[in-house]
Design a protein that fits this description.
The complex is a heterodimer. Chain A is of the alpha+beta class. Chain A has helices at 29-54, 58-85, 123-128, 151-164; strands at residues 9-10, 22-24, 87-90, 94-99, 104-110, 116-120, 130-136, 145-150. In chain A, 43% of the residues lie in helices and 23% in strands. In chain A, helix 1 (29-54) runs antiparallel to helix 2 (58-85). The longest helix of chain B is centred in the middle third of the chain and has 29 residues, at 230-258. The chains are: A alpha+beta, B alpha+beta. Chain A binds chain B through residues 1-2, 93-94, 96, 100, 102-110, 112-113, 137-144, 167-171, and chain B through 290, 292, 315-316, 439-450, 453, 461, 463-466, 468, 470, 482-483, 485-487, 489-490, 492-493, 497-501.
Chain lengths: 171, 510
């Protein structure tokens, strides 16, 4: 049985080998997570505070502002912890993903079960040169997504996984 | 498949339309709509003593639009029906359809996965049936022929399945052989279906839950200060609870005795044949190699009676083809002592599906099982305790049930992983034994919350195709779960592969 805990951790840009080494996500993904989760709440809080102030509800406005600031502070801590916990490893025969702050999750997807590999890039991810790699199998519950992977690495990884994919979909 | 079948099907002949009585179904709905509109207008005229001419057009416009739709829709349906033809060839089914844009669809029999005959209540009155054919195409393409003469639909089903078998077996490695006769495995009468309904886990769990909910509501009303109307409230809650219980029991009886009326299950070659239903008759064909997992379900009452039910999880189903529109197919009742033999006959491989002895969860899981159930019981009776404080605190004594309940839950939970099969068991009131061949495992997941991590426990999920509720076991030993996470998905190939290696036609079906 392979033990990813014994594998070395790597965040460098070495050519990717399917050797089971544990990789962290690109640190820039923290910006994607923070902005994606923080900006909508900040904007809503700002609008709420302005409306409350305009109505003369000073206490409510202050409460909303303080709440928004606390949320952002908690979010920044959360993003840091989430990044720390998010690792993935490409073995010679399977992809392993580990993540989760409170509930720790791990997932292993053999390449021969892969039916489709998607590469998603939102506006912020495009700006930062990142991509999200999603592996799909015949099961809807498979959890195999790597967010925040540098585009070049994702593009080099995808054909190598596809070459091993679809050998047997077991349905 | 008999020569008369082939003659009736006009194989290789010109295109044919579905039965003309199909139009009665859509026309009947239109007539019902028209009758409703006429009744509305008539009611308005009678009430006001005035004709439509005296009313403003804006009031009648919606009704006029409904009338137009009611008239246009059957015309459109008739044109579509006229433009849609199907024809059977020796190797494929061809459907041409469309009025403005014509579609030519070809379904090679070798790609057919499932052929079902479905009869709604209205179709039964008209002696019609719908033929649903699922292929292995992109996204599990489904062709529907609605509606055909019932006998013709069954002949087509037999013909397509027989041709598929012949085409798939016409390989050098597997020469054609005569089709085996269908072999009946199980037939359930009304009495057995009634037993299945009355011992169903939904009643074992649902009836006590409804009664407890009734008590809870009564307690909440007492807390809210309705004590002046105690007698009326008691009557209201009792009546509501009784109705809910009758609804639960009646619904389950209806679903079982009517919905699964005349349940028969048989095997022909590598196909399972299911037939059931009184108002809606369903005839399903499930290839064995599409079955991803089998769940054996029981509960304390069924254990006493020595019976279980089975659920077969298929990789895909036809929209509405599986029971409840899903990909699950239930065998409602089976004597427990027949289980191993039945699974062997059903799946054609007794050794693969024989459940090995299970490994128990660690002692920490036992404690968690008791604590979780204790907390659940405390929360459930808390309103009663508060409503009738201080005497109501005695109700909290029910939490002591958590000890034996948790002990039984722990004793009946466990896992086993052989070289070919992974098995999970869990639950008391709705106990599941989930059997998954390793060659069906798509991927695996583990999850561990802080409390589980503290006791080195984890939940293991096994992902299979088709069913979104993955087999799982809570509170396994953490290192064991992690080892299985790495072992089970990788064992699929060693355990004989899946789709390609099991399908008689191999890669050609893709």
């Amino acid at each position: 049985v392979s033990d990813p805990g014994r594998a070395a951790t790597s965040t460098d840009d070495d050519p990717l080998e399917l050797d089971g080494r544990s990789h962290h996500l690109d640190p820039r993904v923290r910006v994607v997570w923070a902005i994606g989760s923080g900006v909508p709440v900040l904007v809503a809080g700002l609008v709420g505070a302005i409306v409350a102030q305009w109505q003369g509800w000073t206490g409510v406005a202050a409460g909303v502002a303080v709440g928004a600031v606390l949320y952002v502070a908690a979010l920044l801590v959360w993003v840091r912890l989430a990044w720390d916990r998010w690792t993935w490893a490409a073995w010679s025969d399977a992809l392993e993903v580990r993540h989760g702050v409170i509930t720790r999750r791990a997932s292993l997807v053999p390449y021969h079960r892969i039916q489709q590999i998607d590469l998603h890039r939102g506006p912020l991810e495009r700006f930062l040169g990142l991509a999200r790699l999603v592996l799909r199998t015949a099961s809807a519950t498979t959890d195999a997504e790597i967010p925040g992977i540098p585009l070049a690495r994702a593009e080099s990884l995808r054909p190598r996984l596809l070459a091993r994919a679809g050998v047997d979909d077991a349905v | 498949m008999t020569p008369s079948d082939a003659d009736a099907l006009a194989v290789g002949g010109p295109g044919r339309r579905t039965h003309v009585r199909t139009l009665v179904v859509s026309g009947g709905l239109a007539l019902a709509g028209m009758a409703f509109v006429v009744a509305q207008v008539g009611t308005q005229m009678a009430a006001g003593g005035e004709g439509p001419d005296d009313r403003s057009w804006s009031e009648l416009l919606p009704l006029l639009l409904v009338v137009v739709v009611i008239i246009v829709r059957p015309l459109y349906d008739s044109a579509m029906w006229f433009a849609r033809t199907y024809r059977l060839a020796p190797t494929e089914l061809i459907i041409d359809e469309g009025i403005l844009t014509r579609h030519h669809r070809v379904l090679p029999f070798v790609r057919v996965q499932q052929v079902d005959v479905h009869q709604s209540f209205l179709a039964q009155i008209l002696n019609l049936a719908e033929l649903r054919i699922e292929s292995a195409g992109e996204g599990g393409d489904t062709m529907r022929l609605r509606l055909l003469d019932r006998e013709l639909a069954e002949q087509m089903r037999r013909y397509i399945l027989e041709r598929r078998r012949q085409l798939q077996s016409a390989t050098p490695e597997d020469p054609a052989h005569p089709a085996p006769d269908p072999r009946p495995l199980l037939a359930l009468g009304t009495g057995e279906l009634t037993v299945a309904a009355l011992t169903h886990s939904s009643l074992i769990v649902g009836v006590p839950f409804v009664v407890l909910a009734g008590l809870w509501i009564a307690a909440a009303m007492v807390i809210a200060g309705f004590d002046g109307q105690t007698a009326g409230l008691a009557a209201l809650v009792t009546a509501t609870t009784s109705v809910a219980v009758v609804f639960l029991v009646g619904g389950r009886l209806y679903g079982s005795v009517v919905g699964q009326h005349g349940f028969t299950l048989g095997v022909q070659g590598d196909d399972l044949h299911l037939r059931y239903g009184l108002l809606e008759v369903r005839q399903l064909t499930i290839p064995r190699w599409r079955v991803q997992q089998i769940t054996v379900v029981d509960n304390p009452l069924r254990r006493v009676l020595g019976i279980v039910s089975l659920t077969l999880h298929s990789a895909a189903g036809l929209g509405g083809g599986g029971q409840g529109g899903s990909t699950r197919f239930e065998v409602p009742l089976l004597p427990r002592d027949r289980l191993d033999d039945f699974l062997g006959e059903l799946m054609g491989d007794a050794e693969l599906w024989r459940a090995p002895s299970l490994t128990a969860r660690p002692a920490a899981a036992h404690r968690r099982a008791m604590v979780r159930r204790g907390l659940l019981l405390v929360v459930a009776v808390a309103p009663l305790a508060l409503a009738f404080f201080p005497w109501g605190l005695a109700a909290l004594a029910v939490a002591t049930v958590a000890a034996p309940w948790g002990r039984v839950a722990h004793r009946r939970a466990g896992h086993a992983a052989t070289a070919t099969l992974v098995v999970f068991a869990r639950g008391v009131l709705h106990h599941r034994l989930e059997l998954v061949p390793l060659r069906r495992v798509q991927s695996c997941r583990t999850a561990a919350n802080p409390l589980q991590r503290r006791f080195r426990l984890a939940t293991l999920h096994v992902d299979v195709a088709g069913d979104p509720s993955a087999p799982r076991l809570y509170d396994m030993d953490g290192p064991t779960a992690d080892a299985l996470l790495h072992r089970l998905p990788r064992s699929g190939v060693a355990a004989g592969g899946g789709y390609l290696k099991n399908h008689p036609a191999g890669a050609d079906v893709l």
